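About this split. The held-out portion is used to measure sequence recovery: a designer receives only the structure tokens and must propose an amino acid at every position. Recovery is the fraction of positions where the proposal matches the reference. Here is one held-out target exactly as it appears in the evaluation file.
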């Protein structure tokens, strides 16, 4: 019997594992990993992202008002692992990355990504917690490596958990 059943159940939810890329709209870009992402509307197509308030990307999203979601296949997990440390702990992680800029929002698309979504910021919802909910309208996308949802990298594929 668990001492924390809420944590236990939250850890049962299937979480993806993505690279979120951001820009200030000028020259500054960042790459971070995230797993709290879901589609929340059809018309317009909206996604919600749980974004830590202290992350470097949080400020870039506020300033640039765009972000991109890079989706990876399981086979490319090692590429994504390079972005797990914060920019404060790994200031050169973007310099070491191989990427192009997406055509519409000009956020990094990592070379090994299987697909990406380009998002325009709709709103940041302050939920009085350590993360805020960032709502983005999906305004562009491209599949770079065909596959299906079973090929998509998730936290359980890595044996990791960021929940509870």
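Reference sequence for scoring:
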């Amino acid at each position: 019997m668990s001492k924390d059943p809420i944590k236990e159940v939250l850890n049962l939810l299937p979480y993806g594992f993505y690279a979120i890329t951001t820009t200030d709209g000028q020259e500054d870009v960042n790459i971070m990993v995230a797993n709290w992402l879901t589609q929340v509307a059809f018309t317009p197509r909206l996604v919600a992202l749980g974004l830590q308030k202290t992350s470097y990307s949080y400020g870039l999203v506020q300033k640039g008002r765009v972000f991109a979601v890079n989706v990876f296949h399981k086979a490319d997990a090692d590429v994504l692992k390079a972005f797990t440390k914060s920019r404060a702990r790994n200031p050169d992680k973007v310099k070491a990355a191989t990427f192009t800029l997406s055509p519409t929002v000009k956020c990094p698309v990592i070379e090994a990504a299987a697909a990406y979504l380009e998002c325009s910021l709709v709103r940041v919802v302050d939920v009085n917690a350590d993360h805020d909910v960032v709502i983005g309208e999906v305004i562009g996308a491209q599949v770079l490596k065909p596959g299906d949802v079973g090929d998509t990298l998730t936290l359980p594929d890595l044996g990791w958990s960021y929940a509870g």
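Annotator remark: The mean pLDDT is 94.
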